[in-house]
Amino acid sequence: MPQQLWTSVDDYFNGLLVEEDDALRAVAAHSGSSHLPEHQVTPNQGKLLHLLARIQGARTILEIGTLGGYSTVWLARALPADGR
Prior knowledge:
Blueprint: H1 3-17, H2 22-33, H3 43-56, H4 70-78
């Protein structure tokens, strides 16, 4: 499948299911302005990580290789108030 089709599918689901807030947009923008490789997760993938951590009832999360921190924000938001 061509990359453009994958991108269109991602854009569709992102628009339908995911609302990025100012913090997530700022992390993504900072990654871009810092010339980091464009390997961060997409918004819908971030939301999936968030959902999986919540379903699991995670109280501690360790992410290795955070790049710009976009997925870290999603995962951190899945933790309870006393999570780490």
